[in-house]
């Protein structure tokens, strides 16, 4: 099986609530069969502090491109960067 990169935004009162919302949305969009290449395949996340001079998307893409070990494992955690008070960006590699 392979892996694909993904990004997905989600809202929630906390990163954990937003993660659950993102997984639920992805499961409905991509199905429940597994190996979707989406956040639906993730079981955890790691909070990444936002870079003060980069957008969340730019920071996420750089981390993926540079193979940052915190988010480079398709079976490991997704990255999570807070975009606004209740909005989060989840990203990384997922099994496909």
The largest β sheet comes out as:
4 strands, mixed
Low-confidence stretches: none
Cα Rg: 12 Å
- How many structural domains? 1
Mean pLDDT: 96
Span of the ends, CA to CA? 6 Å
Q: How many individual β-strands?
A: 4
Give the fraction of residues assigned to helices: 25-40%
List the total number of helices: 2
Series of H and E elements: EHEHEE
List the helices and strands and how they pair.
Layout: E1 3-11, H1 15-30, E2 45-47, H2 56-65, E3 78-84, E4 87-95
Walk me through what this model shows.
The protein has 96 residues and is an alpha+beta fold. The chain has one domain. Helices cover 27% and strands 29% of the residues. It has two helices and four strands. A four-stranded mixed beta sheet has the order 1-4-3-2. The N and C termini lie close together (6 Å). The mean pLDDT is 96.
Summarize the structure.
With 96 residues, the protein is of the alpha+beta class.
Keywords, separated by commas or semicolons:
4 strands; globular; alpha+beta; 29% strand; 96 residues; 4-stranded mixed β-sheet; 2 helices
